[in-house]
User: Fold this.
Amino acid sequence: MTRARDIILTAAQTRAAEQVIFDGGVPVIDLMEKAGAAVADAICGAYAPNDTLILCGPGNNGGDGYVVARLLEERGYRVRVAALAGPKTEAAQIACQRWGGEAESLDNASPAAMLVDALFGTGLTRALNDALESRLADLVRASAHSVAIDLPSGIDTDTGALLCRVPHFDMTVALGVYKPAHVTMPAKEHCGRTVLGDIGLTDIARQIQAGD
Assistant:
């Protein structure tokens, strides 16, 4: 049987695997909760509680970030969230409400000992704008530890190409399955140590990969 660490899916294949879960009656927010829990577990396993700044985008990657914010707060981390924009998807809105805190402006957020990138994950196809690219780089540089959720923002999932200037992260938590960018240069070296966060996709992903 193919091991979880040997399963690599493209962005489209990953979405297809997730859709199987949703078609089975699992709400998006439930899968988001699993993703956030996997990231929080990885962070707690690697770093002691400290000041943490989580950068949240408007989509479901940002929603994962709000879940992480809530769970890390519950585990003793001092958490702030800086939002690129308000959550746009229903699941991300629910995750933000469950977190319950106020988001700072990304433009004005001060650095923290740990930086978590939940801006954009799998499926990004265009570069970050210049201002956001520079802001992300500055905040990562100012941190002692940096973690990316699924992929560092600014990476092409399927090719591993850098769509813009991408900081080097200490750790990336791959959600559900690994993607080509986790094992392909130059993206791989920007991910740092990549760990797999189990969100219940392994069996479905194995079938999808075998079908190809």
Observations:
- The beta strands are 51-56, 78-83, 104-105, 114-118, 145-149, 171-175, 193-197.
- The CA atoms of residues 29 and 91 lie 5 Å apart.
- Helices lie at 11-23, 28-46, 60-74, 90-99, 130-142, 180-183, 187-191, 202-211.
- The mean pLDDT is 95.
